[in-house]
Protein backbone atom coordinates (compact mmCIF):
# COMPACT_ATOMS: atom_id res chain seq x y z
CA UNK A 1 0.00 0.00 0.00
CA UNK A 2 1.36 3.38 -0.95
CA UNK A 3 0.51 6.65 0.72
CA UNK A 4 0.42 9.63 -1.64
CA UNK A 5 2.71 12.57 -1.09
CA UNK A 6 2.54 16.06 -2.54
CA UNK A 7 5.01 14.86 -5.21
CA UNK A 8 3.07 13.53 -8.17
CA UNK A 9 5.19 10.41 -8.71
CA UNK A 10 6.28 9.67 -5.13
CA UNK A 11 4.47 7.63 -2.50
CA UNK A 12 5.37 6.14 0.85
CA UNK A 13 5.37 2.35 1.22
CA UNK A 14 4.33 0.43 4.33
CA UNK A 15 7.75 1.13 5.89
CA UNK A 16 7.23 4.86 5.17
CA UNK A 17 10.10 4.83 2.66
CA UNK A 18 9.56 7.05 -0.39
CA UNK A 19 9.09 5.02 -3.55
CA UNK A 20 8.56 5.93 -7.17
CA UNK A 21 4.92 5.17 -7.97
CA UNK A 22 4.52 2.73 -10.83
CA UNK A 23 7.85 1.04 -10.08
CA UNK A 24 9.45 -0.93 -7.29
CA UNK A 25 12.31 1.55 -6.97
CA UNK A 26 12.88 3.49 -3.77
CA UNK A 27 13.85 7.13 -4.05
CA UNK A 28 17.12 6.44 -2.21
CA UNK A 29 18.11 3.87 -4.85
CA UNK A 30 17.76 6.43 -7.63
CA UNK A 31 19.49 9.08 -5.55
CA UNK A 32 22.41 6.74 -4.82
CA UNK A 33 22.90 6.20 -8.56
CA UNK A 34 22.71 9.95 -9.09
CA UNK A 35 25.25 10.70 -6.35
CA UNK A 36 27.60 7.75 -6.87
CA UNK A 37 27.97 8.14 -10.62
CA UNK A 38 27.14 11.81 -11.05
CA UNK A 39 24.41 10.87 -13.53
CA UNK A 40 22.19 13.63 -14.83
CA UNK A 41 18.41 13.08 -14.98
CA UNK A 42 18.80 12.22 -18.66
CA UNK A 43 21.47 9.61 -17.88
CA UNK A 44 19.31 8.20 -15.09
CA UNK A 45 16.52 7.82 -17.67
CA UNK A 46 18.94 6.04 -20.00
CA UNK A 47 20.04 3.70 -17.19
CA UNK A 48 16.49 3.15 -15.89
CA UNK A 49 14.34 3.38 -19.05
CA UNK A 50 11.25 2.13 -17.23
CA UNK A 51 11.17 5.43 -15.29
CA UNK A 52 9.73 8.52 -16.93
CA UNK A 53 11.52 11.85 -16.75
CA UNK A 54 8.65 13.06 -14.54
CA UNK A 55 9.28 10.20 -12.10
CA UNK A 56 13.00 10.95 -12.05
CA UNK A 57 12.57 14.68 -11.49
CA UNK A 58 9.95 14.04 -8.78
CA UNK A 59 12.33 11.65 -7.00
CA UNK A 60 15.20 14.14 -7.17
CA UNK A 61 12.95 16.97 -5.98
CA UNK A 62 11.75 14.80 -3.09
CA UNK A 63 15.38 14.09 -2.20
CA UNK A 64 16.43 17.75 -2.20
CA UNK A 65 13.40 18.70 -0.11
CA UNK A 66 14.08 15.85 2.38
CA UNK A 67 17.86 15.62 2.06
CA UNK A 68 18.72 15.34 5.76
CA UNK A 69 16.22 12.52 6.33
CA UNK A 70 17.25 10.58 3.21
CA UNK A 71 20.99 11.10 3.79
CA UNK A 72 20.47 9.60 7.26
CA UNK A 73 18.63 6.65 5.66
CA UNK A 74 21.50 6.16 3.20
CA UNK A 75 24.08 6.28 5.99
CA UNK A 76 22.10 3.73 8.03
CA UNK A 77 21.94 1.42 5.01
CA UNK A 78 25.69 1.72 4.42
CA UNK A 79 26.42 0.94 8.07
CA UNK A 80 24.22 -2.15 7.87
CA UNK A 81 26.06 -3.31 4.74
CA UNK A 82 29.38 -2.83 6.56
CA UNK A 83 28.09 -4.82 9.55
CA UNK A 84 26.96 -7.68 7.34
CA UNK A 85 30.20 -7.63 5.40
CA UNK A 86 32.25 -7.71 8.59
CA UNK A 87 30.17 -10.51 10.10
CA UNK A 88 30.46 -12.84 7.08
CA UNK A 89 33.88 -11.80 5.83
CA UNK A 90 36.10 -14.50 4.39
CA UNK A 91 38.42 -15.00 7.35
CA UNK A 92 40.78 -17.34 5.46
CA UNK A 93 41.17 -14.88 2.61
CA UNK A 94 41.62 -11.98 5.03
CA UNK A 95 44.33 -13.91 6.89
CA UNK A 96 46.15 -14.75 3.65
CA UNK A 97 46.02 -11.12 2.51
CA UNK A 98 47.27 -9.93 5.90
CA UNK A 99 50.07 -12.51 5.90
CA UNK A 100 51.21 -11.23 2.51
CA UNK A 101 51.05 -7.63 3.68
CA UNK A 102 48.14 -6.61 1.45
CA UNK A 103 45.90 -5.64 4.37
Account of the protein in words:
With 103 residues, the chain is mostly helical. It has a single domain (3-99), classed as Winged helix-like DNA-binding domain superfamily/Winged helix DNA-binding domain (Arc Repressor Mutant, subunit A, Orthogonal Bundle), CATH 1.10.10. It is 60% helix and 8% strand. It has 5 helices and 3 strands; from the N terminus they run E-E-E-H-H-H-H-H. Strands 1-2-3 form a 3-stranded antiparallel sheet. The chain is elongated. The model has no long low-confidence stretch (mean pLDDT 90).
Topology:
Layout lengths: L2 E2 L5 E3 L5 E3 L6 H11 L3 H7 L5 H13 L1 H22 L2 H9 L4
Antiparallel strand pairs: 1-2, 2-3
Helix pairs in contact: 1-3
Count of DSSP strands: 3
Report strand %: 5-15%
Tell the overall outline.
Answer: elongated
Report the end-to-end length measured between terminal Cα atoms.
46 Å
The CATH architecture would be: Orthogonal Bundle
* Count of alpha/pi helices: 5
Binned, the helix content reads 55-70%
What's the number of structural domains?
A: 1
- Main CATH class: Mainly Alpha
